[in-house]
Amino acid sequence: MPKPDKKPAANSLYRQAKFLISAAAAKQFPGGDCLEVAFAGRSNAGKSSAINKLCDIRTLAKTSKTPGRTRLVNFFSLDDRRRLVDLPGYGYAKVPEKMKLEWEKLMEKYLTQPTIAGVVVIMDIRHPLKDFDLQMLSWCEHFGLSCHVLLTKADKLKRGAQQASLLKVRKILKQDGYAASVQIFSALKGTGLDELAIKLNGWLDVPQD
Length: 209
What we know:
With 209 residues, the chain is α/β, with parallel strands linked by helices. Helices cover 33% and strands 20% of the residues. It has a single domain (11-203), classed as 3-Layer(aba) Sandwich (Rossmann fold), CATH 3.40.50. The longest helix is centred in the C-terminal third of the chain and has 17 residues, at 159-175. It is globular, with a radius of gyration of 16 Å.
């Protein structure tokens, strides 16, 4: 008999995700009495793919082979109390400096919102902890935000190399005083999907079955 598909914890909640609004300025943020988990990361690190895999909706967050295409803060509703937020990708060299500064200001304004329950920082497992990644981690520390690092594209490395990268990132974060948790993830293989869902369930106060 075929084995039943293993679904992540509270998967039905994330499958309910629906696009809510794209905000180009802080005044367009939806606000309200909601809990939000934001996804941040370098351009082309796999941020949109991670959101789509979590929600089991292939086209929820727009993916592109051209880095730097996400230029707005995109909000997705899970229910009337919970949302996911896709922040603009950062760190792409070909983007004009003025636009980079605008994105940074927009993200900084978002990170002061009282609705944020936690931030998932996306890093390519082959190239973690770049300058902009460290800046995002510093922002989370500064604003007192819970932070979880997702080392994406794990399928690009063998298991030994995955674990080596995970341990190295954990060691550096601890040495530098960052309180972020860390995990391995692959949108292609589904690696780490349950672990991510469980982390978000805690942040979003999802009732346990």
